[in-house]
Structure formats: structure tokens, C-alpha cells
Inverse folding.
């Protein structure tokens, strides 16, 4: 039996070795910003902000940005990037499996790209419940995560995957060894985000399912 603690991501090592990891914003972010503007979004939270690509992108466009990540190194990289650009964002070290340190309905929008699937389903459901809590009614959620396509792809055949629960795998080798990956089905997507009016579900160019919803 693999404990929940033992499958937590070793993100510190990844950011230490690879630096900013992602530097370009998600391909949908321009469209997401247009939606934000339509719904008069001002305050945005990035769950699992990493080294700051979306904090920088959104701050440049006038949004009040907040972010958290499990990795101190990632946050240091994000802070350096923000300073280089003359920008500010309220970023903190925090785990998405724990209660978010924000008031109810504090945010107008939440973004989280390629992050929330790195857990068992019980922790994913908790994270989504916290997103719902801190997001105002009528607020916007944009999230992306991998889909289930038979056997997980993206080079996963070299990862020596071990299934630990339905749809959740731990790679035993490869660049994300030891990090949980839950592969959502489309039905799961609607169930997990049942408290949102889903406006769009589509696949991006990296084979991740992207969801944009409005909190009821």
C-alpha cells in the first residue's frame, strides 16, 4: 500500500534542475483573458503557480494576481520573474491538499493548468471544493488536466506506471517519477465540477482536457 504522503510531488527537485520549466502561457490564455474581461474579473488565483508564467501574463494585463505552490524554488523563480517585469503578485508556499488561506468568495477567477490531477481523487475533490469556496458566485474557473485514453500516453510507456486507484498512476521512472497522475474521463470531469456551469471542454495541443466554467 502506497501512503498518500509517499506520492506527494518532488517539485522542489524539478524546479531546481529545470528552472522556470514553463515560460509560455497556456495556448488558451488570450481567450481566457477575453472571458475575464467580459465577466469583469479583477482578482485571480493561480493554483499551483509554479515559476509564474500565468502570474506574469495576467499581471501584465492589469489583473490583481495571487498564487501558491508547494515548491519554494518555484516561488523564488516566480518572484524573480515578476521583479524583472516590474510586476507584483501575492504568492505564498502552500499545498493544494490543505485549506486555502483565503476568505470565502475572495476571487473573481481561478486558473490551474496541469496541476490538480497530481493527486489521488480524494485530494482532487478537496482541492476543487476549496476552489469553489474561495471563488465568488458567477466567478470563472479555467483548469486543464490529462485525459484517459486507454493506456496513458505522452511517453508514459517509459514511465513504468503503477496504478494505485482507478485512473490514478504513479510513474516509477521518467521525469515525474513518484508524482501521482490522475487521468480524468469526460464523465468524471462533469461530476468533479458539478457546481459549475461548463462553458467549454476541449483538448489542447498537449493532449490535456481544458475546462472553462462559471460557478453557480
Amino acid at each position: 500500500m502506497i501512503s498518500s504522503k509517499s506520492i506527494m510531488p518532488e517539485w522542489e527537485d524539478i524546479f531546481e534542475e529545470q528552472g522556470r520549466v514553463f515560460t509560455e502561457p497556456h495556448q488558451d490564455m488570450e481567450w481566457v483573458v477575453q472571458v475575464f474581461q467580459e465577466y469583469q474579473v479583477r482578482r485571480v488565483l493561480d493554483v499551483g503557480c509554479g515559476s509564474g508564467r500565468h502570474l506574469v501574463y495576467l499581471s501584465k494585463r492589469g489583473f490583481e494576481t495571487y498564487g501558491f505552490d508547494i515548491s519554494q524554488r518555484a516561488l523564488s523563480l516566480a518572484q524573480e520573474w515578476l521583479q524583472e517585469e516590474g510586476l507584483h503578485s501575492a504568492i505564498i508556499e502552500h499545498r493544494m491538499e490543505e485549506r486555502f488561506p483565503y476568505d470565502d468568495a475572495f476571487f473573481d477567477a481561478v486558473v490551474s493548468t496541469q496541476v490538480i490531477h497530481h493527486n489521488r481523487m480524494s485530494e482532487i475533490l478537496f482541492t476543487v471544493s476549496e476552489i469553489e469556496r474561495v471563488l465568488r458566485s458567477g466567478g470563472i474557473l479555467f483548469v486543464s488536466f490529462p485525459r484517459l485514453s486507454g493506456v496513458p500516453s505522452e511517453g508514459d510507456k517509459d514511465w513504468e506506471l503503477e496504478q494505485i486507484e482507478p485512473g490514478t498512476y504513479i510513474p516509477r521512472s521518467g521525469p515525474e517519477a513518484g508524482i501521482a497522475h490522475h487521468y480524468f474521463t469526460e464523465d468524471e470531469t462533469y461530476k468533479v465540477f458539478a457546481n459549475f456551469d461548463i462553458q467549454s471542454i476541449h483538448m489542447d495541443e498537449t493532449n490535456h482536457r481544458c475546462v472553462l466554467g462559471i460557478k453557480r
Summary: The helical segments are 11-18, 29-38, 53-60, 72-84, 121-134, 186-192. The first strand starts at residue 43 and ends at 47. The chain has six helices and ten strands.
